[in-house]
Structure formats: C-alpha cells, structure tokens
Write a structure and sequence with these properties.
Layout (H helix, E strand, L loop, with lengths): L11 H22 L2 E5 L3 E6 L6 H13 L3 H17 L8 H14 L3 H14 L5 H17 L4 E3 L2 E4 L2 H14 L4 H16 L3 H14 L6 H14 L9 H16 L4 H28 L3 H14 L4 H13 L27
Antiparallel strand pairs: 1-2, 3-4
Helix pairs in contact: 1-2, 2-3, 2-4, 3-4, 4-5, 4-6, 5-6, 6-7, 6-8, 7-8, 8-9, 9-10, 10-11, 11-12, 12-13, 12-14, 13-14
Length: 353
C-alpha cells in the first residue's frame, strides 16, 4: 500500500523566516541603488531620491550596500577603483571624496586592517575638515585608539606582534585638538587619562586628569577624574626623603573634592590622615638631619612645627620624645620661642641639601 505523507501548512515561524529573507533582499537592492524613502503621515513610505545609475553617488551607494551586506572585500574593490580614477583625473576635490575615503577606511577596518584604515581617516581629517565625514573619521580613530590602548597589536609581517600604544595615545590627543569641547574629545581625554593610570604612568595620569577637569569642569566624568587625580599624585610620593610637592597637591585636591562633593568627605578622611602622617615624617626626617649636623636650634624649630601642625601623627610622638631627651620642653610658665624670632634672612631649617 502506498503511503502518502500528511501535507502541512507553513506555520508562523516559517512565514516570519521568509518575510525576513524577503526584507533582507529588498533592503540590499535599495541600498545598492541608493534609494531614499521618507515616512509621510498620510501616504506612508514615499520614494524621495534615486541616484542616477553610473554616477558617483550610485557607486558609493553600491559600496555602502556591500558593507551593509558584510562584504567588505567587494566594497574595497569598488572604492579603490573609484578613488584611483578620480585621483588619476586630478579630481581629489570631488565632493564625494571625503565619504569615499571614509567608506574605504571602514572596509579596511572590517577586514582587520585598521592601521591601513587610519591613512584614509587621517586624510579626511587633514584635507576635508569641513565635510560631514570629518566627525565620522574622528569616531573611527577613537575606536581604533581604544583598541590599541587595550592591548590590540599592530600587524607586522602578517602577525599582530607590534606594540601600538603610542599610536593610540597620539590619536586620542589629535581628537582633542581637532574637536575641542565636543563629547568625543571629552571621551578621548578621559580614556587617555585612564590608560596612563592603568599602566602606572602616574605623572602623566595626574596631568591628564587635571587637563580633563580644566577643559570639562562640568563633564560627566568629573568625580571620577577628581578621585583618580588624587591617587595619581599620592602614588608619586616616594617617601620622607623625597620631594613632597605631589603630596601637597593631593591634599589640596582632597579638600577641593570634599567641598564639591560633601558626600565623599567620609571616604577621604583616612587619606587626609595618611597624607598628614607622611608630611610629618618628612619634617621629622629634616629635623634628624639637622641634629646630625649639630644644628640644634634648627632641629628644635622643625620639631615644634611638627607638634603644632601634625599633633596626632606618629612623627609628633617621636618629636615629643626627642624634645624631652634634649630638655627642649619648657614648663607652661616659661616663655616659648616663636618662629618670628628667627632672623628674617635665615634659611628655612626644613630645607636640607
């Protein structure tokens, strides 16, 4: 007996699949033709523009369609042919050239040749700064810079083995120079500062965060930049025997942060205490150096400053012990020598060669 299978109608999922396929084909055809539509309230979608076949606009529309269909190789071939022909004709000022260069850069980027794409993006930035493609080229450069700073290597002899962080840094700096005050420039500024902080280039990080706060005083990353700037300055302090400029900068910046964001005061109070301890230790080191040289008056003055300015620090306890051993702690009724009694031309005893 011959058995026939049951005939089934296409279900909703199958219908949706065919509809999606048809839409994709139609979209590709429209992109290839560069057709533009406008949605009108009464008449729905209406065709508003169709480029003339064979025109520059139509060629670029075909390249855009190839990119949209994930065919960057075909797009690159189309654009290489078109750009080469225009350059051979001496028509580098063709109004479609900025967009063509940007599209070729996009095709190269899609093919994993981001370094080659940079040449086209840079050409747009330098030769066509008034074009609509200028912003797009800057955005692409930001994307490439971010990838380089996050570890992407540049191709060398076909392998990704060449460090490209210096290129990433340069690109982010150029974006800030070319688009000052823009959202993209702000993002480039904070990205560069965060990179320096991440790789422990604390002097550059502190400078970069400081520039961000000056250029974007109300930027969305303001709190983040203020915090990171403090810790970048703290990280530069090497110990009591070294310069305390970064430590003093950090202390001032902490007070500024507390005034702008009072809710941060509780979190940063321990940091202020640590800074005061470090400053007191620096002064104690200077006092001990004076004692070794036999400069008792200078050492005594520094120790008194420690007790006055940093009474709760560990250095204050040691300073008090030294003064007690030396017999420099007078009774409350005894006159206390003041710093004003120092000769006006005398050098600061805290300074040591």
């Amino acid at each position: 007996m011959r058995r026939f299978g049951t005939r089934r109608c296409a279900g909703p999922a199958t219908a949706l699949m065919f509809a999606a396929a048809a839409l994709a084909v139609a979209s590709g055809a429209c992109l290839a033709q560069g057709v533009e539509y406008t949605l009108e309230p009464e008449n729905g979608w209406q065709r508003t523009h169709t480029p003339e076949p064979g025109s520059d606009e139509a060629v670029l529309a075909e390249a855009r369609a190839a990119l949209a269909q994930d065919r960057p190789g075909r797009a690159l071939a189309i654009l290489n042919r078109w750009i080469g022909a225009r350059e051979a004709e001496g028509m580098a000022d063709n109004p479609w050239m900025p967009e063509a260069l940007t599209l070729r850069g996009d095709a190269l980027l899609a093919l994993g040749r981001e370094y080659s794409a940079l040449f086209d993006y840079e050409r747009v930035a330098k030769q066509y700064p008034a074009s609509d493609a200028f912003i797009t080229a800057a955005q692409r450069e930001y994307e490439i810079a971010s990838r380089y700073l996050n570890g992407l290597k540049r191709r060398f002899l076909g392998l990704r083995i060449a460090d490209a962080t210096d290129i990433g840094e340069e690109l982010l700096i150029r974006i800030q120079e070319r688009l000052p005050g823009s959202q993209l420039a702000e993002q480039a500024a904070i990205t560069l500062a965060d990179y320096y902080y991440r790789v422990a280039k604390m002097d550059l990080a502190a400078t970069a965060y400081d520039l961000y706060l000056k250029n974007y005083p109300r930027g969305e990353h303001r709190l983040h930049a203020m915090r990171r700037r403090i810790f970048a300055n703290l990280a530069q302090f090497k110990g009591p025997a070294y310069d305390t400029t970064s430590l003093l900068d950090a202390r001032e910046q902490i007070l500024q942060l507390a005034s702008v964001y009072p809710q941060e005061a509780g979190d940063i109070a321990p940091v202020v205490a640590r800074i005061d301890d470090s400053l007191a230790a620096r002064r104690l080191d200077a006092a001990l150096w004076r004692l070794k040289r036999g400069d008792g008056p200078g050492a005594r003055l520094i120790l008194r400053r420690i007790l006055r300015d940093h009474p709760r620090s560990a250095a204050a306890a040691e300073a008090l012990a030294i003064m007690a051993r030396k017999g420099w702690i007078e009774s409350p009724s005894a006159p206390q020598p003041s710093e004003e009694q120092q000769p006006s031309g005398a050098a600061d005893p805290e300074r040591s060669p």
